[in-house]
Design a protein that fits this description.
It is a single chain. The chain has 425 residues and is α/β, with parallel strands linked by helices. Among the domains are: 193 residues, NAD(P)-binding Rossmann-like Domain (Rossmann fold); 84 residues, NAD(P)-binding Rossmann-like Domain (Rossmann fold). It contains 17 helices and 14 strands. The protein has a six-stranded parallel sheet with strand order 3-2-1-4-5-6, sandwiched between helices. The protein has a six-stranded parallel sheet with strand order 11-10-9-12-13-14. It has a two-stranded parallel sheet with strand order 7-8. Helix 14 links the parallel strand 9 and strand 10. Helix 1 packs across helix 3, helix 5 packs parallel to helix 6 and helix 9 packs across helix 12.
């Protein structure tokens, strides 16, 4: 396959992973962002985010990668633009299309007079957005000279590079035969099933996928709360369930709920979209409600063991999941916020997420290691299943004043550490 010239609009997690992986597949990539700092970082060989394996791939493919804040410069140098900007939640949970509209306006101005430029939406958007917002906005400026498509991403933070290069499927939504053939050829090296749909179906596949995964998490957490009271290990229950091929084991780890930049906002956006469409998604609404309450279950367990007022509490794990520095919608945020009502003596540690967490809670005591964080602590809460936490031993917790250890994720080994408890198992 001849190399394609690709613009990536937006250098967040999706944009950076998408662009660098396309470069790995042999293409020339132009990153575009309004953040001068991010663009300078890319130009200088520095990754603006941490994602497992991404920096190594970036260094390997730097000769194929350019970066600019000038979208016109990028559009003139490329044939395809992927929109990878954020779609955060609005005040009432609805999707905020501010960045999508701005990207569409900028692309429209940039490709004015250019023939057949392809604009592909990779951002997660509710059905109808690609055609009724993106295409319509570009058309107002660029006329009918462009081609449009929708190509949702299915990247798990912490595993995003692997997921891009080894996907379960590639979904391409378009009515345009030329867009279909171009994207089919672009993804040919990844060796995965490619599903062609109309644009609205492609948009919905992304939401439906995330909503079902979120449902599995809230289901096992609700079940875990019951198992906790009944003296049952939820993880053994999940193991038995997961052996059924119709169910599977993935996303059945009970704990303190889901977080991150996708599930929370996508579940809310789907609920709001359904309401605006005159339909209530009762199950999905309950999924959200369960997840809102679940993180604070760990504080219920803590209060059963000690009054946290004025105590020194160690918090291990701030990122919403391991192998990323992303703290967006992390359960740790809700837990720490509630914990601060009882004590200001919170000692925190995370292998990668502390810099981002410090922007939210500058008043915490940030430590250089898990062992330092638990030193002189009255209790310890483990919130993220980092690999290094799995290797903690009795020795690492020996400096605690009183040994109260509560897991929000199942992390510790009974062979290495004695006397700890899970939040819902």
């Amino acid at each position: 396959m001849a190399p394609r010239r690709i613009s990536i609009i937006g250098t967040g997690y999706v944009g950076l992973v998408t662009g660098i992986c396309f470069a790995e597949l042999g293409n020339n990539v132009f990153f575009v962002d309004i953040s001068e700092q991010r663009i300078e970082d890319i130009k200088n060989g520095k990754m603006p985010i941490y994602e497992k394996g991404l920096e190594e791939l970036f260094r390997k493919n730097r000769k194929k990668i350019s970066a600019t804040t000038d979208i016109k410069e990028a559009a003139e140098s490329t044939d395809i633009s992927f929109i990878c900007v954020g779609t955060p939640s609005g005040k009432n949970g609805e999707i905020n299309l501010e960045y999508i509209r701005k990207a569409a306006e900028d692309i429209g101005n940039a490709i004015k007079g250019k023939q057949d430029h392809m604009v592909i939406v990779k951002s997660t958007v509710v059905p109808g957005t690609t055609e009724n917002v993106v295409a319509k906005t570009i058309k107002e400026t660029a006329g009918n000279r462009f081609r449009i498509g929708m190509n949702p991403e299915f990247l798990r933070e912490g595993n995003a590079v692997h997921d891009f290069l080894n996907p379960d499927r590639v979904v391409i939504g378009t009515k345009d035969e030329k867009v279909w053939k171009e994207l089919e050829a672009l993804y040919e090296p990844v060796n995965a099933p490619i599903l062609r749909t109309d644009i609205k179906t492609a948009e919905m596949i992304k939401y439906a996928s995330n909503a079902l995964l979120a449902t599995k998490i809230s289901f096992i957490n609700e079940l875990g709360n019951l198992c906790k009271k009944a003296g049952i290990d939820t993880y053994r229950v999940a193991e038995g369930m997961g052996l059924d091929k119709r169910i599977g084991r993935h996303f059945l780890n009970s704990g303190i709920g889901y977080g991150g930049s996708c599930f929370p906002k996508d579940v809310l956006a789907l609920i709001r979209f359904s309401q605006d469409s005159g339909t209530d998604l009762e199950i999905i609404k309950k999924v959200h409600e369960v997840n809102e309450k679940q993180p604070l279950k760990i504080l219920d367990v803590l209060r059963e063991k000690t009054d946290p007022s004025g105590k020194t509490i160690a918090v291990l794990g701030l990122a919403f999941k391991p192998d990323t520095d992303d703290v967006r919608e992390s359960p740790a945020i809700k837990i720490v916020k509630e914990l601060m009502k009882y004590t200001k003596n919170i000692r925190a540690y995370d292998p990668k997420g502390m810099e981002n967490f410090r922007k939210i809670f500058p008043e915490l005591i940030y430590c250089k290691s898990a062992r330092e964080a638990v030193s002189e602590a009255d209790a310890c809460l483990l919130l993220t299943e980092w690999e290094e936490f799995k290797n903690l031993t009795e020795y690492d917790f020996s400096g605690m004043k009183s040994k109260i250890i509560i897991e929000g994720r199942k992390i510790l080994s009974r062979e290495r550490v004695k006397d700890f408890e899970g939040v819902c198992w």
